[in-house]
Amino acid sequence: MADPEFILNAWHVGALSHEVEAEALFPRRLLDRPVLFYRRERDGTPVAMLDRCPHRFAFLSKGRRSGDDIECIYHGLRFGPDGRCTRSPYQDSPPPGAAVEIFPVVERHRMIWIWMGDPAQADPATIPDHSHMDREDMRPLLWHVQFAGNWQLGNDNLMELSHLFWLHTSSIGGWKPDAGATPGEVYSARSADGKVFSRTLVPDITRPGVFDNNIPAGQAYDQWTATVWEAPANMRVTMGAVPAGDDPASLRQPYMEQTHCITPETAGSSHYFSGFTRTFELDRDAEGDRRFVEFFRGIFEREDGPMMEDIELQMASHDLFAHHPLVLPRDRGAVLARRMVAQRLAGEQAARGNAQPEPALAG
């Protein structure tokens, strides 16, 4: 039976393009199912199949390749990229009906997207737009980390970015206010067309975090952030710093566009795929880019990840609202995302004949 905590009929990031190398077998647990990724020999097109031989349930990823077929290491059965058994060492022809499950995959924006629900509903046109990752002139960088927490905690964390001034004070947070509110801060969040849009403007600060090295020292700047979220857990974040009083829409340097995608590993652990493009420090060499990645990966591993893991331990269930949390004004975007996820989960459960009342979705 499908896990009620996962949205199945959606595109999830299964791997970064560079993780699935030619000739390699790449296993990863997604939505609590074992998945094997590999690439076809002829054109490198990715394939994703259930990482389980239907005979004695061995991991196919521990086997070997024979062209585009995967040979099980246990008894030598082979399976093609369409999932069908192509060879059995014990019979003249493959056993009738012998096959492994194949998942629709699309490689786009330097990521491999996988659909683990009804294949008939897998429309590539609905893959979230992270096209900024295709812009070579903005030096795209991507990385993957994991954390021991439910995937919706990642939504909560990324849809409420005021924590930058507190959790990330020593890294990218910028100026930490002495009072409980940032003076003059403007925040808004709304839902439309199945997405959540939020925007934050923190005016007149002299230390705008990640942009410290790229603006004149001592000059007042407005730091702004615009986020677009879509289910299950895909976020595009544009962040920049402009001279105080300037128009953020002008996209004056410096600014960065970020990709944040979270895919469940299990109900209590998650994959986090993140990256960004930028308009500053474009003269960095490969080693400089590597240090950039390690800097941001380290922030997550030292700060965000442990925080979400602590919260996971505090919650008896993954239904945040069942715990009656205190809701602050800056939580609106995260709350809207939670409600939309709940609506999607309820809809899929109803379609599977396990109907539950759909939660109301406030605009």
Automatic annotation (TrEMBL):
Keywords: 2Fe-2S, Iron, Iron-sulfur, Metal-binding, Oxidoreductase. Gene3D superfamilies: Naphthalene 1,2-dioxygenase Alpha Subunit, Chain A, domain 1, Rieske [2Fe-2S] iron-sulphur domain. Residues 11-114 form the Rieske domain. Coiled coil: none annotated. The keyword rRNA-binding does not apply. GO terms for molecular function: 2 iron, 2 sulfur cluster binding; metal ion binding; oxidoreductase activity. The keyword Metal-binding applies. InterPro entries: Cholesterol_7-desaturase, Rieske_2Fe-2S, Rieske_2Fe-2S_sf, VanA_C_cat. Pfam families: Rieske (PF00355), VanA_C (PF19112). This is Rieske 2Fe-2S domain-containing protein. It comes from Croceibacterium xixiisoli.
